[in-house]
Write a structure and sequence with these properties.
78 residues, mainly alpha, 3 helices, 0% strand, globular
């Protein structure tokens, strides 16, 4: 596997772990753990997409990171 594949796999795994833990009611979507897993996963998936020049996913993952960072900042201020 290429480096971009490894990075993308780690990113998608992080996103899926956050999703699975949320569905299993182990963490809430407002929890810092959930938000950090989403930021890390989206960032890694975005880097991987950038490495292979797949621009639609670069944009998607960039927006995902920004939106989740905003949610994390708001949760930290409460």
């Amino acid at each position: 596997m290429a480096l971009s594949d490894w990075i993308g796999t780690l990113g998608v795994t992080s996103l899926l772990v956050a999703f699975a833990l949320n569905i299993a009611k182990k963490i809430s979507p407002e929890s810092k753990t959930y938000l950090i897993l989403n930021i890390a996963g989206a960032a890694l998936a975005g880097v991987s997409s950038y490495m292979i020049a797949f621009w639609p996913f670069v944009i998607l993952e960039s927006v995902w990171v920004i939106a989740t960072l905003i949610a994390l900042i708001k949760s930290s201020q409460q």
